[in-house]
């Protein structure tokens, strides 16, 4: 058993949620407050009582996605779109001069997001994979290179252009797409993205900056690593965030705000 506190909307009982019927070609739109599970490492635990699963796009199989769908879950395909990872099967397809400095995680380096002619087909193939496995949405990671020491002279405009390209690639494939962190650009990008994914907004006193998504009827999937649930859940409920306590390795363990 994993630490799993039930009680958020759609995050108790059997973990199902009364999803509205989607018309053909209509994208999924996760609503504020819906419960979720975020697991990127370890053997996938499909028994967690959460209506939304955010899982690794490469290691999660088409069969696992189908099983989650059959159980009434919606699925989000995690991909890194702003950084190169040496452990991915398409790592050799990235030109070496496209790679910048490390982003703080072993085997990962920022990519030069200005070079969209080279990045777009690489990302398109990844999004094709998410679509073909049956995912409902994409979580593109490392979406704020311009605010980091990437090794490239990136500007806010470079980031906006690239992030909007990522949103278009998802939408062209019928997939919803989330804005990962990148708090400064939420006002410009909330209309381009279907939900947000945030790490540690409570720890850094930034959660109110995500409210444009909530006001637009779009979920904010939020995780804290260093704060116990007693330190952030009350405020998360007030803001209608979908909040979890997780460990940094993002395995199956979770505590949802009750």
UniProtKB/TrEMBL annotation:
Cited Gene3D superfamilies: Aldolase class I
Start and end residues of each stretch annotated as Disordered: 1-34
Basic and acidic residues bias: start-end ranges: 1-12
InterPro entries given in the database record: Aldolase_TIM, GH, GH114_TIM-barrel
Pfam families: Glyco_hydro_114
Domain Glycoside-hydrolase family GH114 TIM-barrel: 36-252
Domain of life where this protein originates: Bacteria
Name the record gives this protein: Endo alpha-1,4 polygalactosaminidase
Organism: Streptomyces caledonius
């Amino acid at each position: 058993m994993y630490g799993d506190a039930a009680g958020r909307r759609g995050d108790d009982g059997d973990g199902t949620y009364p999803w509205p019927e989607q018309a053909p070609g209509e994208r999924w739109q996760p609503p504020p407050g819906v419960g979720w599970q975020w697991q990127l490492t370890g053997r996938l635990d499909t028994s967690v009582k959460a209506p939304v699963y955010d899982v690794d796009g490469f290691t999660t199989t088409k069969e696992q996605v189908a099983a989650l769908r059959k159980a009434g879950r919606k699925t989000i395909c995690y991909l890194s779109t702003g950084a190169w990872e040496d452990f991915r099967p398409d790592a050799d397809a990235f030109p070496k001069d496209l790679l910048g400095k490390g982003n703080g995680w072993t085997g990962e380096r920022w990519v030069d997001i200005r070079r969209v002619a080279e990045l777009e087909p690489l990302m398109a193939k990844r999004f094709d994979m998410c679509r073909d496995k049956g995912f409902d949405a994409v979580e593109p990671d490392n979406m704020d290179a311009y605010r980091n020491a990437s090794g490239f002279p990136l500007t806010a405009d470079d980031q906006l252009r690239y992030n909007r390209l990522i949103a278009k690639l998802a939408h062209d494939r019928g997939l919803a797409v989330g804005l990962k962190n990148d708090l400064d650009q939420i006002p410009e990008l909330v209309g381009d993205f279907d939900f947000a994914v945030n790490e540690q907004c409570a720890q850094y006193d930034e959660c109110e900056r995500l409210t444009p998504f909530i006001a637009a009827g779009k979920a904010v999937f939020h995780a804290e690593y260093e704060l116990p649930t007693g330190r952030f859940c009350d405020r998360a409920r007030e803001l209608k965030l979908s909040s979890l306590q997780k460990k940094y390795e993002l395995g199956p363990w979770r505590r949802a705000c009750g």
